Amino acid sequence: MTRQILVGNVPIGGGAPVSIQSMLNTKTTDVEGSLAQIKKLASAGCQIVRLAVPNREAARGFAEICKESPLPLVADIHFDYQLAILAAEGGAAKIRINPGNIGGEDRVKAVVAACKDKKIPIRIGVNGGSLDKALLEKYGHPTPEALVESAFQHLELLEKEGFYDTCVSMKSSTVPNMVAAARLFRSRCDYPLHIGVTETGPVRQGLIKSAMGIGALLLDGIGDTLRVSLTDDPVEEVYAAKDILKAAGLRKQGVDIISCPTCGRTRIDLIGLVNKVDEALKECQKPITVAVMGCIVNGPGEAREADIGIAGGDGWGMIFEKGLQVEKLPYDELLPALLARIEKL
Q1: Mean pLDDT value across residues 167-179
Q2: Which residues have C-beta within 8 Å of that of residue 168, sequence separation ≥ 6?
């Protein structure tokens, strides 16, 4: 079991459930816009939100956002250690730094002192794209070993100051490197891990890379908090994170939809129906399995294994609950009838 830190009221590590994070894409100076996006993320199931703090104006905005945010906020700091101190004073629930680009040891000490005073944890964020020159010369490129060595160098800086309220991330845009680095780190250390694949590319690729990398680690029992990084609306990151956790068997809340891939036997608009069901149930937190099947060959059997399900025919469909057929309806009436029954479950 890993050590545990507290980010606001959210425990990370120490046997706590894996928490979901995302990052705002609003300007931190836009207080109203940022708060609106935080509220959307909270509704989607996000538990921790990170904001970029690139300058003093953003630090002032961050402090204003902290006053009204329903979720604990992480200040993302690069280069200027004074911004980390301002964010700590402004109400940050965690500070994310890359000690490799924040300056000398005296600057790291100053950040640690501010975090100690406010009892704020620090996330050491190691990134394959920002390793220091010495490590790149030693390993040739951002290998898993280089990422882990960088993480330990940074941990040593904090430990020298008696600071242990830390979590670590070692992110890479290369899935095997990220996975190997996390496994190697976990074999040597019990600090909690923030996991995720960075710079994943277009949404389709990003979802696949994130599911592979994050999923592989979760199935190994590695990972205490996560972010699915997508070039998309941050709310979509949260939905993807929830789906990965459900697929790994680590999250029961929310609907699990099973549906067939369609074939020549399909006689209803299954693709359209599945998309409508998915959209309608995105924020439903009931721990149920919903089957949406396209024909009466495999459909009834699959629907029988679900809490509730549809098996379609030629312009019509059957609704099953716990394996029992409860209703036969024209296709156009299937979706509202299904949703009405789910509402009552």
Answers
A1: 94
A2: 123, 124, 126, 151, 155, 185, 189, 191, 192, 193, 194
247, 275, 305 — which closes off a domain?
A: 247
Local structure of 142: helix, strand or coil: coil
Give the range of the structural domain holding residue 331, as residue numbers without chain letter. Answer: 256-344
* DSSP string over 64-91: HHHHH-SS-EEEEE-S-HHHHHHHHHTT
Number of domains in the chain: 2
* CA–CA separation, 215 and 217 (whole Å): 5
pLDDT value of residue 216:
98
- For residue 94, the tally of other CB atoms under 10 A from its CB is 29
What is the arithmetic mean of pLDDT over 236-253?
A: 93
Neighbours of 140 (CB within 10 A): 9
Same domain, yes or no, for 329 and 235? no
**Residue 193, Cβ neighbours under 10 Å: how many?**
24
- Distance separating alpha carbons of residues 233 and 237, to the nearest angstrom: 7
Looking at residue 323, what is its pLDDT? 80
pLDDT at 13 over 90: yes
User: Do 237 and 273 sit in the same domain of this protein?
Assistant: no
In terms of domains, do 195 and 293 share one? no
Verify that 243 and 260 share a domain, yes or no: no
- Band (61; pLDDT cuts 50, 70, 90): very high
CATH number at residue 72: 3.20.20.20
